[in-house]
C-alpha cells in the first residue's frame, strides 16, 4: 500500500466521520485543508434520485451560471460563418474559424476546452459528434453553446458557466470556485448551485431529489453536508 504523505496525514486530523456539517463549516474546513501551493478547485459532489414514478430513469444535463464565477479558465473556440469571425474575436474567443476549424477538428486537433457553434454551422459539425461528444465538446442548444449571440455565450463560459450531468448511478460533480475565493463567495456559489439543481427535479420523482452532498478540494478530503 502506498504510504500517505505527511501533508495528507496532517489534514486527516481534520476529518469528520459519520457526521454532517453545514455548508459554511464544510467550506471553512475545505479551505483550511487546501495547503498545496496552486489554487485548488473547490468542488461539490451530489448523489441525486433518478427513479421516476413513470418512465425510465431521469437524466440531468444543464448549465449553472455561478454568481461569483468558477475561477476555471476555459479556452473557447467559436465555429461560425466567415462573416462572423470578427464578431467572435471581439467577443473574446480564443480560437475562431469556419471550414478551416472543422478541418482541424477532423484531424483531431483540439486546442480548446469549449466549443460554441452558430446554428447554421451545426450541419457541418454534426458528423464529428462521435469525436466531440465523448470529449464533452459537442455544441448543444440547451447548454447555450449553439447560438447566434456569440458575445453572451463566450462571456458566460469565460466568467462562470459550469456544465453538469449525472452518471448512470446518479452522481454529479462540479467546481464552485477556488481556494482563493472567500468563504462567503464560495457559499453563495454553493447555495446557488444547489438551488439550481433542485429546480431541475421533475414532477415524476417523489421524495428528496438530492440524496447526499459532499464538499472537497482538489487535493483535500471530503465533508458530508447537511443542515443549514
- As for the number of domains, it is 2
The structure class reads: alpha/beta
Mean pLDDT metric: 91
Report the biggest beta sheet as strand number plus sense, adding barrel if it closes.
Answer: 4 strands, antiparallel
CATH superfamily of the largest domain: Ribosomal protein L1/L10, rRNA-binding domain
Task: Outline the structure in words.
The protein is α/β, with parallel strands linked by helices and 228 residues long. The protein has two domains: 18-71 and 161-224, Ribulose 1,5 Bisphosphate Carboxylase/Oxygenase (2-Layer Sandwich), CATH 3.30.190.20; 76-158, Rossmann fold. The chain contains eight helices and nine strands. The strands form three sheets. It has a four-stranded antiparallel sheet, covered by helices on one side.
How would you describe this structure in keywords?
single chain, 228 residues, alpha/beta, Ribulose 1,5 Bisphosphate Carboxylase/Oxygenase, Rossmann fold, 2 domains, four-stranded antiparallel sheet, three-stranded parallel sheet, 8 helices, globular
